[in-house]
Design a protein that fits this description.
Strand order of the largest sheet: 5-7-4-3-9
Distance between the termini: 19 Å
Radius of gyration: 17 Å
Largest sheet: 5 strands, parallel
Strand content: 15-25%
Order of helices and strands: HHEEHEHEHEEHEEE
Length: about 180
Amino acid sequence: LDNSRLINLDFLNKKILDFKNTLELFNLDFDKVNHLFMEKNIGENKIFINYKDKYIDLAQLDHIILYLLIQKYCLKKEDKNLNILEIGAGFGNLARMILNEYNAKYFIIDLPEQLILQGYYLTLFFPNKKICFAENLPNLCLEEEHVKKYDIFLLPPSIKIQTNLKLNCVINSSSF
């Protein structure tokens, strides 16, 4: 699911040390963020470390730091009815972290091939959430009725938006 095939365990261990040092800037330690790591090795990643029944890999280290920055500067726990847009969401890992912690409608705009992967991944973690795919939108047009009906939106760049959607946070971490 990421570029872990390009690294080895020694490199991952070094990155974990860097990660722990970065956590100190947030006044956190590893055990305070352990709940953000996955409990399953989705994609059978070969380069990971298992810590307290969680799978730790390179992508998750970066996504947790990004999540902590978003949490610090963009989102508040008490916020209700959040609308979050992520452009280029990779396999959906950051979306998973945010949706686990916040009650939000989550919009992803990405390439069609990535949307398929995100749909698979997010369905595994959120089987009870309603996911809107492009084929659920007549004429590729997102309207208010769709926003009310679905929880997660996996949308291609060609989408037309016909609603006054207010966004609380827009994320683009590495797709541009």
